[in-house]
Amino acid sequence: MQTFINDFPLPYLEEDRVAAVNGDFFIQLGLIVMLAGGLAYLLRLFRQPQILAYVLAGILIKPILNLISQFTTIPGFNILIDQSLINSMSIFGIAFLLFIVGLEMDLKALRSVSLVSSLGGLIQISILGTLGFLVALLLGYVSIEAAYVGLILAFSSTMVVMKILSDKKELNTLHGRITVGILLMEDIVAILALIVLNSTDFTLSIIGLAILKFLILFVLAFLASRYLFKYIFRFAAKNQELLLVTALSVCFLFSLAFNYFGFSIIIGAFIAGVALGNLEYSFEIIGKMKSLKDFFALLFFVSLGMGISFAAIKSNWIVIVILLGIIIFFKPMLIMTICSVFKYTKKPSFMVANSLAQIGEFSLILVAQGLALGHVSDELFSVTVFVALASITLTSYYMEYNGFFYRILDKPLSLFDKFTTEGLEYLPTEVKPTIALCGHNRIGYSILRDLRKVKKRVIVIDYNPEIINKMVKEGYHCIYGEVTDDEIIDRMNIKKLKILISTIPGLKENLYLIKRVREVNKKVNI
User: Fold this and answer.
1) Burial (CB count <10 Å: 0-12, 13-18, 19+), residue 155
2) Tens-place pLDDT, residues 273-321
3) Cα–Cα distance between 183 and 157 in angstroms, integer?
4) Range among 121-135, 178-192, 413-427 rated most confident
5) Within 13 Å of residue 19, how many CA atoms lie on the same side as its CB?
6) Residue 128 and residue 145: Cα distance in Å, rounded?
7) What share of the chain is helix, strand, coil (3-state, %, to 5)?
8) pLDDT band, residue 4 (cuts 50/70/90)
9) Is a pLDDT exceeding 50 seen at residue 496?
10) Closest CA relative to residue 437, chosen from 498, 486, 485
11) Residue 107: what pLDDT?
12) Cα angle vertex 208, ends 126, 217, to 5°?
């Protein structure tokens, strides 16, 4: 089987290669979209994630068509779904999604979380890879297959996580930036793994050459972004249709260039997005691309559902349960521990861990390449597809209701509290603060500029340790933590407060903060 080895291959039966007996691809696509749309509407009524509807559409499309063909009296309604074409189109969903993510990416904002993203990400990959390798050996896999299992467990889904964070407008939150940073580190390691495993000669020279090629392409993208694209898009922006076509051209240009040099097209699409992200027209491009991205992303999740082999699942259910246990329980605990060691509070650490509790498209790409090279069996491929599907579906619930899960697990996870607060409270003078600023985001930063003259009477509360370190250098009173934490609220010196300013977006958090402050000091201005 040799299909899209550098991108996103999924298994399909030989008879699926037949486009249709008496129907063309447009009819197939229409049936898939109608089924996915109906299921999405139904699940939305019950407030369930739409991703689940798309996966169910992939699972049900073939049985439904078989059932219809048995009972229908319509002549020539015997339609076979050509999954190879669906897989091909699903590649566009991943590419367009990462293109938009690149456009929305604020690399300057990632600098503040670069240490936990790079070093923490590498620690996580190393531990999970080693654990997966050892567990696979115990389960009876040979060494090369065990190596693939370790890599499969190490990588999360950039596409799914980015989509959910983007839909929830959480890409620029603290946990969103840490998550994105770790995902980028995972993707870089995955690219190197793809290149190394594709070669029969695992040498440092091959790895070094791959890194060199990637850096050359990245530098070219940077130079084009700085000296070329701003002039091209200044003219293209005068016509909205030309703006879209030009942006798509850049996306495909980078995708093809990266593919030519042995990288995945989706990485090329992401770099293209980053290259255009600093343009003043980036928001217009994002608005025009989102509909395309949503449509092709639908096909990505449908293709996941279509790729499941229930016979392989039945015979390997023990392996599936063990791998899911590692992904759903061990992996989040490991990530939360790493974030806590880097002095992030319990809540953002939990949100990051919650977001990464799955395996993703790079895991599927790796195992598909291994299948094509004869490194892994068909059964391991099917197991990987099912584990990816199950973990991605569960992640959509985790991230949709992360506040609910955090409230339930708040006390059981209290052991992580001891990692976070030491050395991150700063009260430089004996003067008791009378103004409390909760949340140092863009609005809080603007407010703080107007309070510089009364700096000694201001206390800043924020759960981003980088912000606290910055405020410490500027001489402000600081407390590091969540405003919904009773201990943090008690240390705010509520009795002496005259003004309370909160820029925190959450309604429930603000209502709780107001209630707790009012219980102690009814005269404070809020």
Assistant:
1) buried
2) 888 887 877 778 878 877 777 787 787 778 777 777 777 788 888 999 9
3) 8
4) 121-135
5) 8
6) 15
7) 70, 5, 25
8) very low
9) yes
10) 498
11) 63
12) 105
Distance CA 248, CA 100 (A): 11
Q: What is the pLDDT of residues 105-130, one digit of tens each?
A: 666 656 666 778 888 889 999 999 99
Distance CA 303, CA 413 (A): 37
Q: CA distances (Å), 194 to each of 187, 258, 346, 357, 397, in order?
A: 10, 13, 34, 22, 30
Determine the Cα–Cα distance for residues 364 and 163; give it in Å rounded to an integer: 18
pLDDT digits (tens, 9 = 90+) for 162-180: 878 877 777 767 788 788 8
Task: For the beta carbon of residue 380, count every other beta carbon within 10 angstroms.
Answer: 22
Of the CA atoms within 13 Å of residue 195, those in its CB half-sphere come to 24
Determine the pLDDT at residue 10: 47
Task: Give dist(CA 179, CA 188) in Å, integer.
Answer: 14
What is the pTM for the complete model shown? 0.67
Strand 499-502: give its sheet, edge to edge.
Answer: 425-426, 477-480, 458-462, 435-438, 499-502
Rg (CA), the chain: 25
Cβ count within 10 A of residue 163: 23
Q: Tell me how far CA of residue 251 lies from CA of 76, 105, 272, 296, 434, in angstroms.
A: 40, 15, 5, 15, 52
Token pair for 237:
């922006």
CA–CA dist 190, 158 (Å, integer): 11
Contacts of 509 (CB under 8 A, 6+ apart): 483, 484
What is the distance between the alpha carbons of residues 244 and 287, in angstroms, rounded to a whole number? 10
d(CA 48, CA 41): 10
Question: Six-digit token pair at 516?
Answer: 């707790």
CA distances 487 to 336, 432, 481, 484, Å, are: 21, 18, 9, 9
**In the predicted structure, residue 22 carries a pLDDT above the cut 50:** no
Q: Is the dihedral of CA 309, 310, 314, 319 positive or negative?
A: positive
